[in-house]
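Changelog-adjacent note: as of this version, every example in the card shows the full chain rather than a window. The one below runs 141 residues end to end.
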Amino acid sequence: MLNIDSIENGIVIDHITAGRGMRVYELLELQKLDTCVAIIRNARSSKFGKKDIIKIEGLTDIDLDVLGFIDDHATVCVIRDGELIEKKQPKLPKKLVNIVSCKNPRCITSVEDVDQVFTLCDGERHRYRCQYCEQVLEEAR
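Full-length structure tokens:
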């Protein structure tokens, strides 16, 4: 079994659906951090079978809307001095602003410098719609 050290101060994003860890890493822009980030893919989980985990040393806050968009079943654990001080559960956001881009080439967002805004149109199927052109976001997860 692979052993990854625990962190003293930072965040552990746990229970990420297996295979979505890299998407979380990309949309949270964790590559821009100058701290230690560990991505564990396909870890064994008694509850889900497999899961992804991301450990971020030194970071104490993340965008829960981004995480909720990708995987609203994930858990965010805030660690201080080696102790769990807070556990957060992201929720599916009602609105996404500048998280993903509209793929419609005729959308105003492809020619104008405006915010990319999507609103939740189907919470059960996790579907979002562009605020400007009504295009349904196909890659919601």
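Structural remarks: The CA atoms of residues 34 and 57 lie 10 Å apart.
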